[in-house]
Each structure stands twice: as structure tokens, then as C-alpha cells.
Fold Pentalenene oxygenase.
Amino acid sequence: MAATTPVQAPPRVDRPGPEPVRRSGAHVPERSYVVRPAPGAVPVLGHVWRLWRDPLAFLRSLAGQGDLLEIRIGPKRAYLAADPDVVRDLLQDPRTFDKGGPLFDTARRLTGNGLVTSRYADHRGQRRMLQPAFHAAQMPGYTDIMIEEFEAEAASWRSGEVVDVRQRMQALTLRIVTRTMFGELASEATIDGVQECLPVIMDGVYRRMVTPTRLAERLPTAHNRAYEQALTHMHEVIDRTIADYHARGRDEGDLLSLLVNTRDPETGAPLSDQEIHDQVMTMYLGGSETTANAMASAFHLISEAPDVEARLHAELDALPPGREALREAVGHLDYASRVTTEALRMRPPVWLATRTTTRPAELAGRRIEPGTILLYSPYLLHLDPATYEAPDRFDPDRWLPERTTRRQRTAFLPFGAGNRQCIGNGFSMIEVNVALATVASRWTLRLAPGASLSTTPAASLGPGPLPMTVQARPRRETAAPATAATAPAPAKAAPASAVPATAGPAMDAAGTARTARAGAAMAATGTAGTATAAAGTTATATVAAAKAAPVPVLAGTGTTAAGSEDVCPFQRTAAPGPDSVEVAR
């Protein structure tokens, strides 16, 4: 085993050399770091075999081994940031440690130059143009769509039946993304096509991420053919929808309208159709599987913790009935927010990420050369016993403000941090809370008899197939059914023109049969129609609605999920410099 080498953070003086060295960590008191090779490397392969065979076990084995660990991927050397402060330094310097490495390079071939995969030079402008779509003023319209979809799904279940919760959550998140993206252009045929294609695409992306050579993806295998066909169809759906929008020539009040109508605040230039295509593909990949995995993991963890389930039910049972009440309450579900936060800690969908070094730098006192690949793992940080007591225990109350520490808040990274923090984190938090509220208020879920479950690392981390038996809970009294004469129209997201360009950020296999069953069940229980007030199409109306539906808070972290008022702990530690862009407020 290699010797452990403590490295003292050097004084802040210039290092002689042809290029200046970028030092990280000016905001952290001087400390000693442990920098060493990760244990377990074998000749020739290095750590490749352990990463391939059981990446989660390998990552957990690195807890306590050091602050910055050298990882060997065949002949190549990379570094894994394994300490929360070191990860903070990595993520707060996006110009030096840019998006890149094998994970993002593979994703870039799929999404093009979208927000998630774009380099530093392009990202700042893209984020400015896209942030209005995730402003708090837009959330009430999105929330209405979420509630409608989850209520329809929950109404379609039958007590005693076995439901693949992971598959149903995937189908629902895809429907929600499609409807918020395309609005009235989101036909059932479009939704069905996306639902068929995207799981195949995500599987193909992960296979390409973990395969060390591109030779395998050129072979005429069944997997490769299915991936190429699904990708081609997905591109056709997006291009056809963009063309349909141009043909209509009017603002539909959806995300696509905002993408088409937005202008760069500095140049006034619009997005090209290819740029719009790349952003739509990015939102599909970032807004469906990761959120579905978060929901599925939360439902499974709740089912294994009866005390947590009872407290969640008590909070939900105290809500007034009706969709409007739920929309107003979704940002105030205190215990549900802690449940969501704890589920994201234990099962972070984004479990491993990479960066590439663009210029000479120092990290944890070690000189990092340009071109060096750096990794960080929320999974490793979230389950480190040095940070979280009993990390395998599902304990939502660990996020009570009086119980959390600075280290715990710093280590909690389900959405990343800094100016590359996920722009849709507020959207996702609302979606998970809506899922918990609509499903858990009606049903208890238990893993089906004989089913086995394992956490599955792929493009995102989730439970894989999750067959659960649903049992009806006692029904609460519902509101009087809406009639055609009295029910207001469903709220839509505000048109792009309603939000200033400088505003801040932010079916399953049953298909039509599921919709028919849901419609019948909703009609029978008096919940047909959309009993919500329209959000309106002016900035005044959308802002007023936003006050009634605040963005949920990541419990115990002091962070609003949209970064709207209280930004993430990483950003509170230092004022933004010329190379950083704060998550817009």
C-alpha cells in the first residue's frame, strides 16, 4: 500500500514557470491535505476493473483514504476529489476546471453544445438566456402540469396491484418534460415516441461512457442498432416540433416558446434551430431519468422506514383537499422536504462527474497540469461516515437546522454547485414533492413479495426495476367536483415576453388505457377538471402566483432549490470573482 503523504497548502506566492498557476481555496483557512494514490490499482489496468465491476463499492472504499486521490484508468492518470472543501474549490473555478472528461465528452456527442455539456466560454451566455425559463414566476404553471399528471397516475392504480414504480416515474417525468417543453404541440404521439426512445438512449449513453474505446459502439450489435434508431427518431421528433412551432408563428407560453423568442442580453442574437435542438435534448436528458430515479429511491426508502412513512402521511393528511391547495403548499411541506433531501443524500442520481483542467492549477496543494481529468462523486461524499453519522440510516431529521454542520452542507451536492449548478433543480424539487404528496396521500407502497432490489449505477443512479404492491389508504374528503361552467382553464407557463431577459433562474406501457382508467377514476371521485386558477400571462400575474407557490427548500442546507434567494453553501463563502457567475437571484 502506498504511503500517505500529508501535503501542506502552500503560501500564496507565484510559482516560477512559463504560465501562472491558478490556486484554489483562498476562502478556506490554511490546512494540510492528504494526497496519495487510491489503493487497489493493478498493473496495466489500474483501477479500471474495480470501476467497471462495482463502481459504488469502489467509491465507498475510498472514504477516509485521502483528500485528493490519484486514480489510474489504464495508462492515464486522473484525480478524485474526495474531501468536501476540495470539491468546493474544484466547482467554484469553472474556467480552470471546465466541463469535460469521458462522462461529459460522451454526453456532448448526444446533446451537442447544450447547457450541461457546454464549455466555459459558451456556458455563461447560454445560462443567461435560459434562466428566465426556470424563474420562480414560471413555476406555478409547471406545477399545475405536474399535479395533473401525478393525480391521473395515482387515480389509475388499484389496491393490491403490483406497479413498477421506477418505470411509472420515468414515464411521468417524460410526459411532464414534454408538456412543459412543447405545450399544445405535445401530442400523445409525441409523448409516446419520446417515452419509447429515451430509455434506450440513456442506456446507450452509459454504455459509451464506461467503454474505454469507441470501437465497441461501431459493432453491428442489437444494442447499437437500437440506440442509433432511437436517437434518430428522437432528433426527428424535436426537429419536427421546432418546425411546427415556426409554422404556427405565435408564443405558446411553453419552454420552446421561450427558447425561440429569447435573445442574448449582450448581442441581441436569437438561438439558432440547432442551438434550440441541443437545449431541448439537454432538458430531456437532465429532466427525466435523474428525477425519476430520485422519486423511485424516495418511495423505496420510505417503504422501509415505517416511522418516516407515518410522519409523512400525517403532514400530507393535514393539507386541505384540492389541487390549488397542493400547489400553494408544495413549498411549505417541511417534513416532505426533509424526506426528499435525505433521499437525495442516500441515492444521489448524479453519482459521478468529471472535469478537465484548462490551465496550470493547484488543488489540495498538488500541482495539476492542463489536460488532467478530475472526478468528484456525490455518492462518496454523501455516504462518508466522517461527515454523516450512520450514513446508511434513512433519517430525514438529520436535516433539521440545529443538527446540520457546515461540513454536511458543503458535502451535499445532488445538483452540483457554483455557476454550473443544475439550472432545473427548483423544477425537480417541486416535482419530487408533488410526487410524494399525490401518491403517499392515497397509497402505501411495499416492495413486492419475492422482488430483489439493488442500487444500479448507470447514466444516473437509481433502483432499476422497482415492483411495489400498492395498498389504498383511507380517503380524505375531497372538494366538490368542478363543472364545465365553473372550472377554470389549466394554468400555463408565462410567455417568454412576460419574463424579462435579465430575470434569474431559477406512457408507461399502458399508454392510452392508463389515461382512460385515470379519467374514469377521477370522474367517479369528483376530481375531474383542473381546479386551479390560471397563472396568467403577464409578469405581474406570474409573480403573484409565484408567491403562492414558493420553491421548496433543500431541508437543512439553507439553500433554495432554485437558488433564488439563498444560494448554495459554496457560493456564500466568497464573493463571485471575474471568472464566476452567481446563480442568478
